[in-house]
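Please, structure for the following, as tokens.
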Amino acid sequence: MRAPYRLSLLAFAIAFIPTLTAVAQQQDMAKAKADTTTHKPARLFRAKDPVVMTLQADFKTVFKDRDSTSKKKYPAKLTYVGDKKDTVTLDVQLGTRGHYRLKKCDFVPLKVYFDKEKAKNTLFAGEGSLKLTPHCQNGDRHAQNIYIEYGIYGMYNQLTPMSLKARLATITYVNPNDAKFTVTRPGFWTQDEDDMAKELRGKVLMQQGGTPGDMDPKQMAVTDVFQYMIANTDFSLSYLHNYRIIQTDTSMQYFPMAYDFDWSGLVNAPYATPDYRLPIKRVTDRLYRGACHPPEVLTNVVLPLFKAKKEAMYNELRTIPGLAPGRLKEATDYLDEFYKDIDNSNFVKRTLREPCVR
């Protein structure tokens, strides 16, 4: 279980943490001059075709590092196929990261560190470090789950620009000390959060204690309903667990941004179980953990947005190379249940409004 990271909303509400509003009162909130320079996303995230790559390292040593606070880095070589079908090799360093997957998975989440000078004019130009999410175990279900988790980022992108981009990869892992180790599986890169914020002329605000009432109403409602749609309960806005808060120089508002969706019911990872304090038994059981949003935001703006973006979000899954037809049907059937429910006004009132009012 991930008890330290998955506290209930009630616990957040009563926790003694300075609010963002209080912090904001101590800051100079004068708007910066509008920057006419458009910041483009890093080159890696300007395309969607999978990166075909090889990662070579002493993975026996790397994967022994299961300390979530570890700062150790391990030498590795990253080789990928370029746009011109050329082969590019970079010396990089690997670090392990995460919490639950770090303990339970054979292939643990990685952070890849680049030498910016050597990475110039490559696919990873400008990157200092990036998160790389591999499969958990070698079974086919784990590979399919990676595709779904990757697809969730694309679905979130369809709803709001205040979201991280992801890039699918076909990764061959090679251990030079063990010829039998070699395996090829899907994984994905996740955009650096600071880079995403710069696209919107903003910055990441790492201040705990934020509440839904501090946030931009539409962005908060979009994210709350999105978390419900994919059946994700593994988050905390107040503790910045699987959340970041963005502030732009063109708005006085704070914008919540969710990430890390492996614990969602849409993915339905074998290792995922709901927090014992929640009134659900399976991660596939949807539970609304969001805020109370007024009808003029929830029913007049946000739910129509979800309906308008339905096909675009489904296409984020349909266009994933490697996603098996059966797994795609399983995912879309699950999403169909959500869309059937939000067409029912009584359901919306009962599920998305009344529980939080009480």
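The longest strand covers residues 178-190. The two ends are 28 Å apart (CA to CA).
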